[in-house]
Every structure is written in C-alpha cells, then in structure tokens.
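Exam revision sheet. Question 4 asks you to relate a sequence to its structure. Input first:
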Amino acid sequence: MSIALTPLEALAMQPRDKRNIAIGEIGAERLRTDWSLWAQPGQVAPPGDWRTWLLLAGRGFGKTRAGAEWVRGIAEADGAARIALVGATISEVRAIMVEGASGLLSIAPRKQRPRFEPSRNRLVWKNGAQAILYSGESPEALRGPEHSHAWCDELAKWSYVQTTWDNLQLGLRLGERPRALVTTTPRPIALLRALLADADVAVTRGATGDNPFLPSTFTEAMALAYGGTRLGRQELEGMLLDDLQGALWSRDLLERSRVRMLPEVRRVVVAVDPPAGVGGDACGIIAVALGPDGLGYVIEDASLHGAAPERWARAVAECVARHAADRVIAEANQGGAMVESVLRAAGLALPVKLIHATRGKVARAEPIAALYTAGRVRHVGAFPALEDELCGLTSGGGYHGPTRSPDRADALAYALTELMLGSHAPIVRARAL
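Answer key, structure tokens:
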C-alpha cells in the first residue's frame, strides 16, 4: 500500500535542479506559510457535517500548528468570524496559541498577520475577524459571549472542564455552521469519553513519531525511555487509557510495578496458554523470573496470534532458551497430551508441567492481582498487550479487554502461581515492628 506524501515531501524527493526551480517559483514566504505544503494526515479538518473536530494526538505531533492554521483559515476567509481561543490558563493561551512558535502570530504571512491587543485579550485581523482569549480556569467568562468558532487546546488540562465546555457550547451559535476544534493529548476524563462517543464529533489521531520534522534523536530517546508505558502510550501515542470499574488491575498499579533492570534470578518459568485452534485466540507465552528478593519479575511476552502448533511451540522453545528457563507450565485443557508432545517436538528437554484448569480465567487471576497489590510483582519494561488484558479483567468474572480472550493474562497467572503460590514458592514472613 502506497503512503501519501505531503507536497513538501514530494518536492524534497525531486532532483536538486528541479527542486530549486520549484522553490524559486513558490517563493520563500509562501514556502514558510502555506499550510497545504506542510500539513500531515490528521492535521487537516476532516470532511463531513461535524460540529466538533477532536484532534487527539501525542506531544510534538503538531496539534498547535494544526489548530492555529484552522483558525487562520477561518479568520482570513470570513471577516465576521468570532473565534474563541480556550486553553488551560490565559498565560498558556497567549504563550502557546497566540505567541508561540506555532501560534497564530508566528504562522501568518507578514502582510496578513493579525493585531494582538493584550489588554483586551483579543486578536483582530484586517478584514474584521476576531479571536478572543479565554481559559478553563474562568468558565464564567464564556457565559454570554457568542462565537462562530472555537479552538480548545489541551482540554484535558482545564481546571473546570465540563462547566467551561458547557458555557462555550451554549454561546457557539453565530453563523450558519458553528464549529469547534479540540486539540489535546488524551487523559481519561469524562468529557473526552463523551466526545469520542458523540456522532457529531469527527476524530483524527496522531503520534509523536508521525511528525517528520522532529529530531530523530528526540523521538528515539522518547521511545527508549517511555515506549509501551502508560505515560508513553498516552503522551506519545495519543491513546486514551482508562480504568474499568471493578478492574483487578489499574494502570497506576502497573506503573508502580515497573522497573528497568532485572536482578540476579533464582528461577525462570515460561507459561503457555495454548489456543483451541489455528486462527482463533492468541497463544499466550509469558516468561517470569523469581528474584532473590522473593519478588516475581515479568521479563517477556512472547505471545503469538494465529500460529499453528508447530510455530507457537517453537516460540516457546526459543523463549526458554533466551531466559534459561527451568520449567514450562502449559494449560492442557486444549488438546491434553498434545500440548506436551508439540513442545517436545520443538526440542524442549526440560520439565513440562501440564495444568488442568478447573476455574475460569478471572478466578485464576484474582490471587495474582493480590500479589501486585501487595507489591510482590515487577514488570521489567513495558508489555502493552499483556497490560491491556490485565486491565480488562474485573472482579466477579468479567473480561472487557481489547481481545476476545485474555490469553496473555492467563499465561501470566500460571507462571506466577507456579513461582509464588505453588509448593516451591518462597515463604514470605511477617515481621513485627
């Protein structure tokens, strides 16, 4: 599948002589200010009869530039436009949305630049269009004024988000098609969830790594430091991560369990939750180590989806070799002795312990969740797919995760049960203080 290039990217791929001619024809001023040359997918207003455009993206994606260009296009085309600029604080609206490097004053061609009147908190274009500054700290300021458009930046940071939004919406009634743009990094707040569920809201998304103009050293450093963590998935990938009511695991609990280094270990087991057939559920393959401190360390998620028995058995064998595991724990319900024979055929000579599951997946997970709550399990790095499944398990037997079945979570439960709750588990003694 071909990837659509922006005009600027297509220009950059031309031979130097043709590129220089084209740049000369475009002109330096237009090259700097013509948004159609620079805009990436997700930064341009989507088609359709929407009332709100929600641009949900990671930091550095270009949300501010997209918002400023949307406002600029409206203001230059319609002298009657009255645009609300709403941010977390008035100082942020001014510093980022108006005067920032990607703000309204910076992106405008010199001859079309609006006049900023700080004492009146407004921008005025030569054709009469106006943009007025507001903040999420002062929702009452939006009670009364009427607007044709609104740009709401970092809505998830607003102090009085629902009241500010409600007052803005009640005044968004000028012109034939009042519209609002929300540019924000996601946070699990009720208003964002409501917007995502609203049929009148058009959603575009983007990640930090989608911006080709960021230094590669920055994107690589951010991916190394935060890739796969809750912070990284929210702030870099622009994902809305939420906790279910009654979930056995919360995102905060998993973040508190995360470490970077694995200590010297006493044991390593690899647990397998085999699929019932090819093309159905995933084959959960999780490696867990027991540290000298008596803690369990999750060290790899090697799970596969849609793999034939020979392939997932080979993946188990490779995982065992990588971590010098001393035992494989496998659920035998799906195929019984076939599980062990497939693993043997893959070259596993170490003990294979078959588990005959008599309880449901959630019931098996509950004592494991208690280990996490007690601070006895660590994740060495991030395991997004596994962690999404864990956060989808709820007390009472429910599963509301991203997959049909929590196969990774089930393999994790087998591994930690063997290491920390089985007959060879370490004894944790209480000491009176």
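Marking note for examiners. The CA atoms of residues 278 and 308 lie 5 Å apart.
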